């Protein structure tokens, strides 16, 4: 039995010892899992994609796999990254911070696959601490995020400009998530928009709702928080 375990410990998978492969993959998984838990905590109370958190875990594993496959071969590295450059990623990220999390998970996996596990662990820990510190110091402070869904009469730019003016005045921040035009060019054309809205505090919901009610082109507005949704009829249902 001892001889079998010794053989397994020294067995190689290609040019890489099997024990190193298992350790690298395990560390990549643990670091990716930690980043996914941190991301879920950051997005608590918001509508985030569960597949994105899974992507953070898998991204670290894929990064480790790539580095293990490359090893010390420059030719293999050029070939693998040349093949990856042919892939077009068309997923739209709604927040730049999501992209940073993807890079962090991938970098942790690369560090684990390259055998520099300490760099991955220290880097991931510092990344998490900085995220926590900036979130507590600057991002929190009572701010509330919500998703605003709008139906606007007409397919021109004027209806949306009126809404943007309200958002600039009443919201601490906002970002367009989705836009869709229904029956363009026709009399009953309308726009359906989705925004992520940052409010200074939950009490800012009522002033924003009242301002949206005063916009004639707003047919319907839905402001969604965690566990609650406020629906606002527009000032002009025509």
Chart the SSEs and their pairings.
Elements: H1 2-10, E1 12-13, E2 16-17, H2 18-42, H3 50-70, H4 74-85, H5 96-113, H6 117-139, E3 144-153, H7 158-170, E4 173-182, E5 190-199, H8 205-213, E6 218-225, E7 228-233
Question: How does this model look, in words?
Answer:
With 238 residues, the chain is α+β, with helices and mostly antiparallel strands. It has two domains: 2-139, no CATH class; 144-233, Alpha-Beta Plaits. The protein is 55% helix and 20% strand. It is built from eight helices and seven strands. The chain has helices at residues 2-10, 18-42, 50-70, 74-85, 96-113, 117-139, 158-170, 205-213; strands spanning 12-13, 16-17, 144-153, 173-182, 190-199, 218-225, 228-233. The strands form two sheets. The protein has a five-stranded antiparallel β-sheet, with helices on one face. A two-stranded antiparallel sheet has the order 1-2. Strand 6 and strand 7 (228-233) form a beta hairpin. Helix 2 (18-42) runs antiparallel to helix 5 (96-113), helix 5 (96-113) runs antiparallel to helix 6 and helix 7 packs antiparallel against helix 8. Mean pLDDT is 76; it is low at 3-10 and 226-232.
């Amino acid at each position: 039995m001892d001889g079998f375990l010794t053989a397994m410990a020294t067995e190689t998978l290609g040019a890489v010892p099997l024990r190193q492969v298992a350790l690298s993959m395990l560390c990549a998984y643990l670091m990716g899992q930690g980043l996914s838990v941190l991301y879920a905590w950051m997005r608590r109370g918001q509508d985030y994609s569960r597949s994105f958190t899974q992507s953070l875990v898998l991204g670290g594993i894929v990064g480790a796999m790539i580095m293990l496959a490359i090893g010390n071969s420059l030719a293999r590295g050029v070939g693998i990254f040349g093949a990856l450059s042919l892939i077009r990623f068309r997923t739209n990220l709604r927040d730049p911070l999501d992209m940073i999390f993807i890079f962090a998970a991938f970098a942790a996996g690369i560090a684990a696959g390259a055998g520099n596990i300490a760099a991955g662990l220290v880097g991931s820990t510092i990344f998490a601490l900085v995220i926590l510190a900036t979130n507590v110091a600057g991002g929190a402070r009572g701010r509330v995020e919500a998703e605003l869904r709008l139906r606007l009469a007409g397919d021109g730019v004027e209806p949306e400009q009126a809404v943007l003016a309200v958002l600039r005045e009443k919201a601490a921040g906002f970002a367009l998530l989705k836009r869709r035009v229904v029956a363009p060019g026709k009399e009953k054309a309308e726009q359906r928009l989705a925004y992520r809205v940052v409010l200074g505090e939950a009490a800012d919901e009522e002033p924003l709702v009242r301002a949206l009610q005063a916009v004639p082109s707003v047919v319907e507005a839905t402001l969604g928080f965690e566990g609650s949704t406020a629906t606002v009829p527009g000032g002009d249902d025509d």
